[in-house]
Amino acid sequence: MWLLGLPWALALLATVASSGPSAEPPERASIFADLSAAELRAVRTFLMERPELGLSPSQGGPLAKNSLFLVELLPPKKRWALRFLEHGGARPPREARAVVFFGAQAEPNVTELAVGPLPRPSSYRPLAFKGGRAVPFSARPMTRLEYELLHQALVAAMAPLEPLLREATGFGFQNCSERCLTFSDIAPRGLGPGERRTWLVIQRFVEGFFLHPVGLEVLLDHWDPDPRLWAVRRLWYNGRYFGSVRELAESHAWGALPLARLPEPPARRLFSSYEPRGRFASGTPTAVHGAKVCEPQGRRYRLRGNRLEYGGWSLAFRLRSSAGLQLFDVRFDGERVAYELSVQEAIAFYGGHSPAAMQTKYMDAGWAMGASSYELARGVDCPETATFLDAHHLLDADGPVRFPRALCVFELPMGVPLRRHFDSDFQGGFHFYAGLEGRALVLRTTSTVYNYDYIWDFLLYPNGVLEAKVHATGYIHATFYTPEGRRYGSRVHSHLLGNIHTHLVHYKVDLDVAGSGNSFETMDIRFENISNPWSAGARVVQPQGTRAGVGQGPPAPRLTPPLACPRYHLAVTRRHENEPSSSSIYTQNDPWDPPVTFESFIRDNETIEDQDLVAWVTVGFLHVPHAEDIPNTATPGNAVGFFLRPFNFFDEDPSVASRAPVIVRPLDPPTCSRLEIRRWTPPSPGPCVHPEPFSYNGTYRQV
């Protein structure tokens, strides 16, 4: 556990662990609001009309073209934002970040532009990465067009293998309708800078196709912008490598190939589906509704645009297309405690016997995990009482795309009191009982990055604690089972290996506790063995806390640059405008020489005493898949996060301002037959819970 050297503490959780009047007008939060559909459209129109850019539509056409890939908000510089928020300065100009693929030139590249001012853009300028690093064209994220061309190239290349595939799986690529094969692609796409060759896992296209590999993996080289020059470089089938499609096809034709024959998938109750099957032994009902969240007197939070208020909390939020949830201007009782709190990256490193498994090192910002925010289901993904919000993304599209119900906000009963005490008189009665119900406000979205679903939460507690948490669910990334693969996972179905992997999630925490000038210190708990001062000859062994201020950031790790950030539970650096994120959308396809390297953030040996500091937090867990991950990984036991906790910041627990406690005192101790029950809420919460008013007894008698 690391503690920040000011009244606000940040504690790592290695495993799962009434809105008041607004202090300022809601429009202040709008400087951090995501771009509207109209703003996204205006940016695209402006750039498409610039003749010097020569942009073509994203969809259709060749890969060797200039196209607009991504448009999202470019947050204002912090000093401009604080001048506006704190000192009544001018509103910062509203700008967009635009990512352009320049493929139709002698030296293709990816360029980022700042476009503004919004809502009527009239100019643009290039955005530079730290050190002026350029983004090579081979580092660009995949597009829908490239996937379409990849599929066409694969289908054409697999034609000689159609007899093998039909015989072994009953499915194929050629002229298929309902019995088709598909693929999942692996990244990184090569073994060094400039490469773009991808291992493809061939699967039967049925419900939950991620769990239906057929034993064939194909390495397809698609580096050249001309798809006619793409080629299969290597294949792996049922534990054996082949140098060409022809070699594998001939091996099958000569009868020298052991086939991996797969059983016919059932028409119903497929093991990879959600259809109910089996019965619980207890016989208790499951075909009826279970417990629900209710708001008997209405909502206790306020949502105005992108500004959220709850109890002492207020904050602005946005959903970045590139990397997901981002909080700004986080305050408690009007005082800022964090300028920014945001998701940076989600990484999954795999091991395996097959080439696709051993190559898999997913870095989900490279798949635009923020734009994978598909619709949340009322009553399942969020309670029925939740407020749902839409999101608009312009990612690999020729206009804004609306994602309905991409976020939700709801108050959650924690099922455990925030605090409570029963004060016994040790004679069968009590002096008093007091308790405060445990509740938190939850801001939630999800990222479905192909097979995995990440559930992203920020929880606000009434005692000034903020929790960041992520749950992992969805389908495991699985490969075809071979006996050699058992060293790298578990056999979770007849032909399926669940590959061992590690999830790592990286957050940015720009704490501003009592101002931007913060310091960092650690607390080490050690045991001392001392002479007992009140009993001669005796010893006392007791814990003591030792605080140490840290003047410089941690030393640079001996790691490859893109892997530096997740190796630290916590790294603290000086804040710089040219270090807005610890990763980028380009790291996935060029992890060897990425434009953003976290190592450069921490190797400059800057002082971090009384400076504007950023804490970079990594949480994660090891996942050894097992049969119970079928059909999907369950959320219990697969969640990680961290807490921001006040540490001598307040005079007392700030939740004493809540009017939701219950206090019970006997009026005739020790008999305790007459009680004073004090509540500041209505006697009964209403019909959505037990209709009887609150009652309490408190005695314990022999019977």
Task: Map the helices and strands.
Elements: E1 8-13, H1 37-48, E2 66-74, H2 78-87, E3 95-102, E4 109-116, E5 123-127, E6 135-136, H3 144-157, H4 162-169, E7 181-185, E8 197-204, E9 213-221, E10 231-237, E11 240-242, H5 245-253, E12 301-304, E13 307-310, E14 313-320, E15 324-332, E16 335-350, H6 355-359, E17 361-363, E18 387-395, E19 401-413, E20 419-424, E21 430-436, E22 439-449, E23 452-460, E24 466-474, E25 478-480, E26 489-493, E27 496-499, E28 501-511, E29 521-531, E30 539-549, E31 570-574, H7 599-602, E32 613-623, E33 639-646, E34 661-666, E35 675-679
Give a verbal description of the structure:
By secondary structure, the chain is mainly beta. It folds into three domains: 37-127, Nuclear Transport Factor 2, Chain: A, CATH 3.10.450.40; 144-254, Nuclear Transport Factor 2, Chain: A (Roll); 306-527 and 559-654, Copper amine oxidase, catalytic domain (Beta-galactosidase, Chain A, domain 5), CATH 2.70.98. The chain is 9% helix and 37% strand. It is built from seven helices and 35 strands. Strands 1, 2, 3, 4, 5, 6, 18, 19, 22, 23, 24 and 33 form a twelve-stranded antiparallel sheet that branches. Strands 12, 13, 14, 15, 16, 17, 28, 31 and 32 form a nine-stranded antiparallel sheet that branches. A hairpin with a 3-residue loop joins strand 14 (313-320) and strand 15. The radius of gyration is 29 Å and the shape is globular. The model is unreliable at 1-26 (pLDDT under 50).
The fraction of residues in strands falls at 35-45%
Give the tally of β-strands. 35
- Helices, by number, come to 7
- Main β-sheet, in a few words? 12 strands, antiparallel
